[in-house]
């Protein structure tokens, strides 16, 4: 009838596609009992040798099963493809195993294409994982779809099936889609198959175990080198050296993997919606892993981060810093290059993260901000998001080498609008920043910490006995801090509180500070040190021994070939690594000083500088 509407669901195309899917399903059923189910059981057990033996026995049926299993893992997404690829490499020569795996990938990609394009199917597994793909697609938005798919196939942490679900949802034609899938999967499959071939040679005693390990390492390096080359050549060119670079997301993906098993921070970033991008993020600095907590904030764009310049010159980290768009900064000294790079990133629309303290908290209380930034922030003309981190201090305090998993809260406490900032003085802005970010870890009484070695390394911070005043006689062991001079014992409970008259670590630290203040006018610190000097590019300029001296007026260093003096008013703070070294800049170069005796004294040098700075500010 002329007026009858045609049923659009039962089209010839849909019927044909449905028939193809039914045939594929029947093939799965036919091979399931004798081959595929046993193979999946072997996969759960990691039994590649058993899988290889089964594939060899079943002949052609085994080869078809490789294709079907490869296709199935594509559709289901969460089933690992490497097992069947390595098993295939163990079972067949490379000229058979490689095309079998690639055909399986193409079959799986075709099924996904049909499910998405013809039946509008949506995979819940893919939807849960699409965040990484969306980020990469956003970063590479000026690239064509084929190039983007090639990039995704080269990303080691994205399943092939998820990529095919994404590709099927674009307007790419089936021909281009299949050509892209078939060719871009080859490098990864080749590596897996060759690992299987090497494993087969090892099992047949043709190669020793050490050579097998070397082969696997070389193949893995070759694959990652190819990925690196492709990304750098075709994808990262425009976004390189900014937080929009894919290196940035890869870096934090690696950090997440390294932090598996730790508690994720509890994020409260509702107020961040009030900040107009690009904005500054200012946060307190409780431990060396704070940057990983702040990555969880719902920023519209990845934020850059202001970091210690010397870390940017460590060989491996130097490359990461460069390509991720982090901003190197000389600590506690004027650095115009850092200011210029910060302005450039802001102009390009990227948020920037700054720790106004410029260093880690020694005792769990937010450091006083000695490098006032209020006037500089005003000139940037951006909103400021003030973010407080609580609970991170005891995860890895400055004085302890080991990190623990603890409950960490990351809260956007306040957003200062640029119009509001414009009406403030720089001094008022600095005060608001400090007061908003201030925290004291010892006041978080609702937390419990089960560690049995809370005091391990605590003498690196509490270097002086609060009872008898003896220097460098304290020792942390288990949950107890003991003085070897007077025998005083201070024990930490589950809240990191002492169970005696001195209640907290900050209180003990203040007791030491009070002793130092009494001796300040006549005090002279002197120590034989090993000194290392570095240029602005991280090149070692000197490595020698000398003597470092500090009094209320200046810091001095003298050796057979080097001598210089720095007035204390030009040393607002000393960055130091507990129990190891302290550092400072002079003449544009960075100097590390390692005391040859009692290395815990570096905390004393830093506390003396803090005390002198406080005294000078109060005047």
Description of the molecule:
The protein is α/β, with parallel strands linked by helices and 619 residues long. It folds into four domains: 192 residues, no CATH class; 198 residues, 3-Layer(aba) Sandwich (Glycerol-3-phosphate (1)-acyltransferase); 61 residues, no CATH class; 99 residues, Roll (PH-domain like), CATH 2.30.29.30. A seven-stranded mixed β-sheet has the order 1-7-6-2-5-3-4. A seven-stranded antiparallel β-sheet has the order 14-13-12-11-17-16-15, covered by helices on one side. α14 links the parallel β3 and β4. α5 packs antiparallel against α9 and α6 crosses α8. The radius of gyration is 30 Å and the shape is elongated. The protein starts with 11 loop residues before the first helix and ends with a helix. The N terminus is likely disordered.
- Could you please say which CATH topology of the largest domain applies here? Glycerol-3-phosphate (1)-acyltransferase
Total number of strands: 17
**Helix share bin:** 40-55%
pLDDT < 50 stretches? 1-9
Q: Quick one: CATH class of the largest domain?
A: Alpha Beta
Please give the radius of gyration in angstroms. Answer: 30 Å
The end-to-end distance, rounded to whole angstroms, is 98 Å
CATH homologous superfamily classification of the largest domain:
Glycerol-3-phosphate (1)-acyltransferase
CATH architecture of the largest domain: 3-Layer(aba) Sandwich
Number of helices: 20
Strand content: 15-25%
